[in-house]
Amino acid sequence: TQLLEQSPQFLSIQEGENLTVYCNSSSVFSSLQWYRQEPGEGPVLLVTVVTGGEVKKLKRLTFQFGDARKDSSLHITAAQPGDTGLYLCAGANIGSGTYKYIFGTGTRLKVLA
Amino acid sequence: ETGVTQSPTHLIKTRGQQVTLRCSSQSGHNTVSWYQQALGQGPQFIFQYYREEENGRGNFPPRFSGLQFPNYSSELNVNALELDDSALYLCASREGTEAFFGQGTRLTVV
Protein backbone atom coordinates (compact mmCIF):
# COMPACT_ATOMS: atom_id res chain seq x y z
CA THR A 1 0.00 0.00 0.00
CA GLN A 2 1.38 3.37 -0.99
CA LEU A 3 1.48 5.95 1.77
CA LEU A 4 2.41 9.60 1.84
CA GLU A 5 3.41 10.80 5.27
CA GLN A 6 3.38 14.51 5.95
CA SER A 7 5.17 16.26 8.77
CA PRO A 8 4.52 18.08 10.88
CA GLN A 9 0.88 17.22 11.32
CA PHE A 10 0.12 20.56 12.99
CA LEU A 11 2.04 23.82 12.93
CA SER A 12 1.27 27.11 14.65
CA ILE A 13 3.65 29.98 13.95
CA GLN A 14 3.83 33.76 14.18
CA GLU A 15 3.40 36.00 11.16
CA GLY A 16 6.73 36.57 9.43
CA GLU A 17 8.28 33.22 10.35
CA ASN A 18 9.47 30.67 7.82
CA LEU A 19 8.33 27.05 7.75
CA THR A 20 8.85 23.81 5.85
CA VAL A 21 6.37 20.99 5.37
CA TYR A 22 7.59 17.56 4.33
CA CYS A 23 5.91 14.84 2.30
CA ASN A 24 7.60 11.44 2.32
CA SER A 25 6.96 8.04 0.82
CA SER A 26 8.77 4.79 0.14
CA SER A 27 7.13 4.72 -3.29
CA VAL A 28 8.07 6.51 -6.49
CA PHE A 29 5.47 8.83 -8.00
CA SER A 30 5.21 9.97 -11.59
CA SER A 31 4.09 13.39 -10.39
CA LEU A 32 3.27 15.11 -7.16
CA GLN A 33 0.91 17.94 -6.40
CA TRP A 34 0.51 20.28 -3.45
CA TYR A 35 -2.91 21.60 -2.46
CA ARG A 36 -4.32 23.95 0.14
CA GLN A 37 -7.75 23.31 1.56
CA GLU A 38 -9.99 25.63 3.53
CA PRO A 39 -12.68 24.24 5.88
CA GLY A 40 -15.75 23.04 3.96
CA GLU A 41 -14.08 23.55 0.58
CA GLY A 42 -12.35 21.29 -1.90
CA PRO A 43 -8.54 21.31 -2.18
CA VAL A 44 -7.08 24.00 -4.42
CA LEU A 45 -4.09 23.06 -6.54
CA LEU A 46 -0.93 25.04 -5.78
CA VAL A 47 1.69 23.32 -7.90
CA THR A 48 2.61 20.15 -9.80
CA VAL A 49 6.15 18.76 -9.85
CA VAL A 50 7.13 16.05 -12.27
CA THR A 51 10.91 15.83 -12.60
CA GLY A 52 13.17 14.53 -9.84
CA GLY A 53 15.02 17.45 -8.23
CA GLU A 54 12.59 19.97 -9.65
CA VAL A 55 12.11 23.23 -7.75
CA LYS A 56 9.17 25.52 -8.33
CA LYS A 57 8.46 28.88 -6.78
CA LEU A 58 5.06 30.50 -6.32
CA LYS A 59 5.57 33.90 -4.69
CA ARG A 60 6.61 33.08 -1.10
CA LEU A 61 6.14 29.32 -1.58
CA THR A 62 8.95 27.06 -2.78
CA PHE A 63 8.25 23.47 -3.74
CA GLN A 64 10.86 20.78 -4.28
CA PHE A 65 10.53 17.25 -5.63
CA GLY A 66 13.11 14.79 -4.37
CA ASP A 67 15.70 13.40 -6.77
CA ALA A 68 14.20 9.91 -6.47
CA ARG A 69 10.62 11.25 -6.81
CA LYS A 70 9.66 9.74 -3.46
CA ASP A 71 9.47 12.91 -1.38
CA SER A 72 8.73 16.59 -1.58
CA SER A 73 8.87 19.71 0.52
CA LEU A 74 6.98 22.97 0.71
CA HIS A 75 8.77 25.98 2.17
CA ILE A 76 6.91 29.18 3.02
CA THR A 77 8.87 32.36 3.58
CA ALA A 78 7.54 35.13 5.82
CA ALA A 79 4.25 33.38 6.55
CA GLN A 80 1.08 35.47 6.66
CA PRO A 81 -2.29 34.79 8.33
CA GLY A 82 -3.74 34.21 4.85
CA ASP A 83 -1.50 31.14 4.54
CA THR A 84 -3.54 29.40 7.25
CA GLY A 85 -5.09 26.17 6.01
CA LEU A 86 -4.66 22.45 5.48
CA TYR A 87 -1.76 21.66 3.15
CA LEU A 88 -1.95 18.37 1.29
CA CYS A 89 0.52 16.63 -0.96
CA ALA A 90 -0.74 14.05 -3.43
CA GLY A 91 1.13 11.62 -5.64
CA ALA A 92 0.02 10.10 -8.91
CA ASN A 93 0.98 6.72 -10.29
CA ILE A 94 -0.03 4.71 -13.29
CA GLY A 95 0.65 1.00 -13.06
CA SER A 96 -0.69 -1.92 -15.11
CA GLY A 97 -2.89 0.52 -16.98
CA THR A 98 -4.67 1.66 -13.84
CA TYR A 99 -4.37 4.97 -12.12
CA LYS A 100 -3.99 5.72 -8.44
CA TYR A 101 -3.83 9.06 -6.70
CA ILE A 102 -2.71 9.10 -3.09
CA PHE A 103 -3.11 12.02 -0.72
CA GLY A 104 -0.81 12.70 2.16
CA THR A 105 -1.96 12.84 5.75
CA GLY A 106 -2.07 16.65 5.69
CA THR A 107 -0.41 19.48 7.60
CA ARG A 108 -2.66 21.94 9.34
CA LEU A 109 -0.99 25.35 9.44
CA LYS A 110 -2.08 28.27 11.56
CA VAL A 111 -0.33 31.61 11.18
CA LEU A 112 -0.95 34.04 14.02
CA ALA A 113 -1.02 37.78 13.44
CA GLU B 1 -13.09 28.88 -9.32
CA THR B 2 -12.17 25.45 -10.71
CA GLY B 3 -15.14 24.93 -13.02
CA VAL B 4 -16.02 21.70 -11.21
CA THR B 5 -19.43 21.74 -9.54
CA GLN B 6 -20.96 19.18 -7.21
CA SER B 7 -24.51 18.65 -6.06
CA PRO B 8 -25.99 18.64 -3.57
CA THR B 9 -23.73 20.57 -1.21
CA HIS B 10 -25.18 18.92 1.87
CA LEU B 11 -27.18 15.74 2.38
CA ILE B 12 -28.54 13.76 5.32
CA LYS B 13 -29.40 10.08 4.86
CA THR B 14 -30.43 7.23 7.10
CA ARG B 15 -28.30 4.13 7.60
CA GLY B 16 -29.16 1.49 4.99
CA GLN B 17 -30.34 4.00 2.38
CA GLN B 18 -28.73 4.65 -0.99
CA VAL B 19 -27.33 7.96 -2.18
CA THR B 20 -26.28 9.47 -5.52
CA LEU B 21 -23.87 12.38 -5.69
CA ARG B 22 -23.26 14.34 -8.87
CA CYS B 23 -20.30 16.11 -10.40
CA SER B 24 -20.03 18.34 -13.43
CA SER B 25 -16.48 18.33 -14.73
CA GLN B 26 -14.42 21.19 -16.04
CA SER B 27 -14.93 21.64 -19.77
CA GLY B 28 -12.60 19.49 -21.86
CA HIS B 29 -11.50 17.25 -18.99
CA ASN B 30 -12.21 13.61 -19.83
CA THR B 31 -11.12 12.16 -16.48
CA VAL B 32 -12.99 12.37 -13.21
CA SER B 33 -12.07 10.93 -9.84
CA TRP B 34 -13.91 10.71 -6.54
CA TYR B 35 -12.58 10.99 -3.00
CA GLN B 36 -13.88 10.53 0.52
CA GLN B 37 -12.57 12.90 3.16
CA ALA B 38 -13.39 12.17 6.78
CA LEU B 39 -13.18 15.01 9.26
CA GLY B 40 -9.58 15.96 10.03
CA GLN B 41 -8.09 13.60 7.44
CA GLY B 42 -6.76 13.81 3.91
CA PRO B 43 -8.93 12.72 0.98
CA GLN B 44 -9.02 8.97 0.20
CA PHE B 45 -9.15 7.93 -3.45
CA ILE B 46 -12.35 6.02 -4.26
CA PHE B 47 -12.08 5.55 -8.03
CA GLN B 48 -11.41 7.24 -11.33
CA TYR B 49 -13.24 7.21 -14.66
CA TYR B 50 -11.69 7.91 -18.03
CA ARG B 51 -13.98 8.17 -21.05
CA GLU B 52 -16.82 6.39 -19.22
CA GLU B 53 -14.68 3.46 -18.03
CA GLU B 54 -13.34 2.91 -14.51
CA ASN B 55 -9.54 2.84 -14.73
CA GLY B 56 -8.47 3.04 -11.12
CA ARG B 57 -9.90 2.15 -7.72
CA GLY B 58 -8.88 2.63 -4.12
CA ASN B 59 -9.71 0.41 -1.15
CA PHE B 60 -13.47 0.88 -1.14
CA PRO B 61 -16.10 -1.89 -1.17
CA PRO B 62 -18.32 -2.61 -4.21
CA ARG B 63 -21.24 -0.72 -2.66
CA PHE B 64 -19.35 2.38 -3.84
CA SER B 65 -19.96 2.60 -7.57
CA GLY B 66 -19.84 5.25 -10.21
CA LEU B 67 -20.77 6.36 -13.68
CA GLN B 68 -19.30 8.80 -16.15
CA PHE B 69 -21.47 10.14 -18.95
CA PRO B 70 -20.56 11.12 -22.52
CA ASN B 71 -20.44 14.80 -21.50
CA TYR B 72 -17.90 13.72 -18.81
CA SER B 73 -20.20 14.52 -15.91
CA SER B 74 -20.18 11.84 -13.24
CA GLU B 75 -22.10 10.18 -10.42
CA LEU B 76 -21.01 8.46 -7.24
CA ASN B 77 -23.49 5.94 -5.86
CA VAL B 78 -23.26 4.45 -2.41
CA ASN B 79 -25.57 1.62 -1.40
CA ALA B 80 -26.45 0.36 2.08
CA LEU B 81 -25.12 3.47 3.78
CA GLU B 82 -23.22 3.05 7.03
CA LEU B 83 -22.58 5.61 9.74
CA ASP B 84 -18.87 5.65 8.81
CA ASP B 85 -19.77 6.84 5.32
CA SER B 86 -20.38 10.28 6.79
CA ALA B 87 -17.75 12.47 5.14
CA LEU B 88 -17.04 15.17 2.59
CA TYR B 89 -17.14 13.63 -0.89
CA LEU B 90 -15.01 15.36 -3.45
CA CYS B 91 -14.83 14.96 -7.18
CA ALA B 92 -11.99 16.20 -9.33
CA SER B 93 -11.64 16.56 -13.06
CA ARG B 94 -8.26 16.00 -14.54
CA GLU B 95 -6.41 16.69 -17.76
CA GLY B 96 -2.87 15.39 -17.64
CA THR B 97 -1.33 15.32 -14.19
CA GLU B 98 -3.32 18.09 -12.49
CA ALA B 99 -6.63 17.59 -10.69
CA PHE B 100 -9.16 20.36 -10.07
CA PHE B 101 -11.62 19.82 -7.25
CA GLY B 102 -15.20 20.75 -6.68
CA GLN B 103 -16.37 22.17 -3.37
CA GLY B 104 -17.60 18.78 -2.21
CA THR B 105 -20.81 17.23 -0.90
CA ARG B 106 -21.09 16.87 2.86
CA LEU B 107 -22.90 13.59 3.53
CA THR B 108 -24.20 12.81 6.99
CA VAL B 109 -25.52 9.33 7.73
CA VAL B 110 -27.70 9.05 10.81
How would you sum up this structure in a few lines?
With 113 residues, chain A is mainly β.
Descriptors:
heterodimer; A: 113 residues; mainly beta; 6-stranded mixed sheet; 5-stranded antiparallel sheet; B: 110 residues; 7-stranded mixed sheet; 4-stranded antiparallel sheet; 0% helix
Describe the fold and architecture:
The complex is a heterodimer of chains A (113) and B (110). With 113 residues, chain A is mainly β. Chain A is built from no helices and eleven strands. Chain A has strands at 5-7, 10-14, 19-24, 31-37, 44-49, 55-58, 61-65, 71-76, 85-95, 98-103, 107-112. In chain A, strands 2, 4, 5, 9, 10 and 11 form a six-stranded mixed β-sheet that branches. In chain A, strands 1-3-8-7-6 form a five-stranded antiparallel β-sheet, with no helix packed on it. The radius of gyration of chain A is 14 Å and the shape is globular. The model of chain A has no long low-confidence stretch (mean pLDDT 91). With 110 residues, chain B is mostly beta strands. Chain B contains no helices and eleven strands. In chain B, the strands form two sheets. In chain B, strands 2, 4, 5, 6, 9, 10 and 11 form a seven-stranded mixed β-sheet that branches. In chain B, β7 (64-68) and β8 form a beta hairpin. The radius of gyration of chain B is 13 Å and the shape is globular. The interface between A and B is medium-sized, with 26 and 28 residues.
Largest interface: A-B, 26 and 28 residues
Distance between the termini of chain B: 32 Å
Query: What average pLDDT do the residues of chain A reach?
Result: 91
Order of helix and strand elements from N to C terminus of chain B: EEEEEEEEEEE
Low-confidence segments of chain A = none
Shape label of chain B: globular
Could you tell me the strand content of chain A as a percent range?
Answer: over 45%
Oligomer: heterodimer
Q: In which range does the helix fraction of chain A lie?
A: under 10%
Number of helices of chain A: 0
Count of DSSP E strands of chain A? 11
Strand content of chain B: over 45%
- What's the total number of strands of chain B? 11
